[in-house]
Please model this.
Amino acid sequence: MPSLLVVEQALNGLQFGLMLFLLAAGLTLVFGVMDMINLAHGSLYMVGAFLAAWLVGLTGSFTLGVVGAVALTFAFGMALEAGLLRTLYARDHLSQVLATFALILILNDGTRMVFGNDLPLSAPAALAGPVELLPGLQYPAYRLLILGVGLALAVLLWLLVQKTRLGALVRAGASNRTMATAMGTDIPRLFTIVFGIGAALCAVAGALLGPLLAVQVGMGENILILAFVVIVIGGIGSIRGALVGAILVGAVDTLGRTLLQHVLREFLPPQWASAAGPAFASIAVYVFMAIVLAVRPQGLFPARG
Amino acid sequence: MTRMTRASSRRLLALVALAAAAIAVPFVLRALGLDFYLGLASRIVVFAIAATSLNLVLGYAGLVSFGHAAFFGLGAYVTAILITEGVQSGPVHLVATVAVAALAALVIGAISLRTRGVYFIMITLAFAQMLFYLANSVKGYGGDEGLNIRARSLFSLGERVLDLKDPFALYYVALAVLAVSLGALARFAPSPFGRAVLAMRDDDVRAEALGFPTYRYKLLVFVVAGALGGVAGALSVNLQGYVSPNAMHWTQSGTLMVMVILGGVATVWGGAIGALALLVVEEALSSWTEHAEFWTGFVLLAVVLFARQGLVGLWTAPPRSRRR
Model:
């Protein structure tokens, strides 16, 4: 019985990790290549989730809604990059913090103006039930969909970065931006596209996690910090690092949440254990980051040689 | 004794006028029947203290700490927990707050200061988040719902008792703390220690090569700032009568950073001006629109794009020739 629980939680951890990866992929490129701290990255996740909830309600189709939301967020991300964020690349980190913090306020409240404080978004009816993966192990079909989409996108992104010309340019930019520019790469234009792709990935994560968590204003704030933890663990600027870091963080967070709770129940009153479990799991993520940084100060896969 | 120049006597005059205005605020508000705004005035002063303490680390020492709200929240929790346990003595609150916040800053600083740049930002953030989740988990003291306190800190001055429940008392105590902090900060920069810290900020390696114990100096600055941040938190819980884990959330650390950057990094008045500007803009906007955050965001963006040295820079920066 507990072994089945562990399998189920491992799947949940992998699923959460893959969604974190979708957020971290864009963040690590912007941070690694442009040396830009973008606190508003989590807001793109929120915008994507709200657009998805709105479009799903409008069209009645989950697929159509999600695809539409991803396309719109892609366009929104590119507009944001070209219109505002681009001017911040040359500024110091403090100015970037102030500007993107301002952007969080604007996007949070702007979303509230347009859509209200939250929107309902439920998983498609066809995927509402559970699937029997192993004898005795029932797993929600919708979570399997998230796993599948996450894995597919991770592979697709790997192909894009490793096997295409665009990917080669991005990698060149991440390892040495000045050199890449000198070799004739139009880094600003490249980065508008990269930022758009990062925004679109945020929208995928937001739309898919929407039915599990909740589509509400401020949903981007907590997950943003986890995404930062992921890219610091993985090595800033490295897509591969972001993937490994995300899966590790997803596992530590999810497994810590359930297993710690079991352990804590042994010597704490139940209502204390249920409160302390999630808190200690969240703390475990940061302890894990501290340990990784102590051993490898540049993260697991540093992008810069 | 040096002869007082005209500029410095004008400064002194401005300072006296400013102090008189700050002291008059509660009476003016009462005379105008605007007692409600005394709470806002106190909030501005409390956040001015917190932002000033962060400016010491962020501006003067050049250490981008993204977890300063941890100390603010710790101070608030220490005081709130003592009051919940029936300890009402203000001096005890103060000593406990300073001790806990300074100890936390010592531990966090000792570890974080071994890293630099972006990693320092992330480590300080990580520690603050740990304390945030810890506060969430302590069900005995409110957990995620926060902790309400019935009483406030009491200071006995001979026969009389100063109860921070009295809005006037709270305002003046906070104002005194702010004045002392600003005075200390103004003396810090030109002092030998202050100059060493500034040198470390500008060139860490060279300062170390010159023989300055850079790590110890940075740690000292970090601890002092943490303790002062804790005092601001203790005042805040006396003001609000309430503290929740959100006092330590990263957005709170972000707000403090925004105040410092808005006001002016590494300027004596930067933290105070930033706190004043941000809170007044928020309050003014929320009186005529439901969506104050939205417009506050645009004000902050305008400051980033057009006032590069922060608000203080608008009138202290030497007039520059127009760019072509």
In short: The beta strands of chain A are 118-119, 130-134, 137-140, 215-216. The two ends of chain A are 47 Å apart (CA to CA).
